[in-house]
Amino acid sequence: MDWILLLEQCLNGLQLGILLFLLAAGLTLVFGIMDLVNLAHGSLYMMGAYFATTFAGWTDSFLLGALLALPAALLLGILVEVVALRTLYSRDHLDQVLATFGLILFFNELARIVWGPAGLDLPLPAFLETSVELLPGVPYPAYRIAIIVVGLVVAGGLYALVSHTRVGMLIRAGASNREMAGALGVDIQLLYTLVFGLGTVLAALAGLMAAPILTVQTGMGETILILAFVVIVIGGIGSIRGAFVAAVLIGLIDTVGRAFLADLLRLFLANQTAETAGPAMSSMLIYILMAAILAIRPQGLFPPRGR
Amino acid sequence: MRIPVGTAVAAGSIVALAIVPPITEALREPFYLGLCLRLMILAIAAISLNLILGFGNMVSFGHAAYMGIGAYVVGIGAFHAVEDGIDWLANGFLHVPLAIAASSLAALVIGAISIRTRGVYFIMITLAFGQMLYFVGVGLEVYGADDGLSLYMRSDFGDVLDINDNTRFYYLVLALLLATLYGTKRLVASRFGLVIRGARSNERRLAAIGIPVYRYKLVAFTVAGAICGVAGVLLANRTDFVSPDMMHWTRSGDLIIMVVLGGMGTLFGPLYGAAVLVLVEEFLSGVTEHWQIVFGPLLVLVAVYARGGIAGALRALERRRG
Fold first, then answer.
1. Is A41 inside a domain boundary?
2. Fewer Cβ in 10 A, N or C end of chain A?
3. pLDDT tens across B162-194, in order?
4. Which of B59, B294, B299 to mutate to test the interface with A (most CBs of A within 10 A)?
5. Closest approach of chain A CAs to the CA of B27, in angstroms?
6. Residue A259 exposure: Cα atoms within 13 Å on the Cβ side
């Protein structure tokens, strides 16, 4: 076993987990509080990446591009909520699936029209393109460390926001009993719009941070969306803490499995077969885990209290 | 005698489907024959989904997986028949029972675990199982993995039902579509169907009067998987191609959209939904390459305003006519 590789892969897994958490946090808030199944959340992630790429191109600066992309995403999220989704909160989940599936088609096509069918690259600034020595002789890309740090800071901020501020209190109140909160004078509609906007910003942040590692292209949201759904279901819908634990878990399993399962399979299978089956099996591992958790604990690992 | 709008439209669409082959032949447009063939096959799959989704309120988000299983039975059979010269593996009378066995077994296992969960968790666990099967397909190195498998020969149903002839294939599928519709009608009206529909409205009450709801739901889930497996056999033969993409979650999403768009829990709804989806895609993509920018918002509008789908709209029309 190559311990240095394992360490690197664990860090990569943590980094994927952080991205998943940013995506899942918004999803689980929207799902848990508004009871809205938002399949289009992945599209918002994609739009974040496209916004950042465009703004970075205009300003010639990665950081400025990222900083401009976030308010743009907030506006987009509010627009989507007001125009398309507001009427769907009280509806059947199926209506929501239909509408947000329609939004996916819309955003993918929009991106294809505006930015073209080819993938885009978001180049990193020089100061992030270096690597840090984790241990003597073990370099690790600084950018990936930056993702982990930013993600952890945002996770901490989110926790503080939800459990220690007035807005967070209103969010929790809206989640546990929307009529009662409304009767006490809380503007539920405004609150929901804000929560959706917050979720969009988090998704866009994940998208723009993933952009330099991946290619910015249409459909980039769909693959990660399903992983994010797996995360919130495993973590317990509506629970930010659950989302965090599950996201890191899924990130680690996916990345480490991808790196080592092929090697493990090579012990039993022909080289080429193991090469193909390894990644497929590690992707399956996630769904097996999810099915097992749901079969044993149908409410997820950390179901929110009071419901 | 006045014929209800719904009945007229249903009968009209069946007649329209029946006269497609002579028309496309006269116009020398075999493309549209293939299009309607695909429409009917997807309709069979959507009807099978409607059985559990529309009548039983089990929102399975992994239904395309059973279609993939059926398709892979054909694909793998044809692959070995061509590569290794094992002729009997291309026999359609083997493919169909095998596909039914494989897809209903998968549905039985998936259902047995999934039906224990409720609501959104049910949606997500079926999605997870669907994705699992999708990745099985991706991992099948011998059968083309990601790239899929081209079919060099279609299922062999003997001379009478030679499906290499697209017109004969078309009428075979039409007959199967009618059989599926009739079977669904009978099933839903039966005592079994009554329990399934009852489970949609109040499961606890059913359990209280001594009905083992879980077992009924599981049987319905398995039957739906089996029918969808047959649709997979047909689809593989129609496209002469099998790939994991047939099992991707977006394909399951397409099936759900057909059911919801057409009208959940109605007999003909899934057929209308499949027709609209296939035809709209065809004609909008003829108008503009970016047809999805129109179709996406259209789906949002349907979700927001047109509850009950197309079948619901027809019923409303009938009521207005008085």
1. yes
2. N
3. 888 888 899 999 999 999 999 999 999 999 999
4. B299
5. 33
6. 18
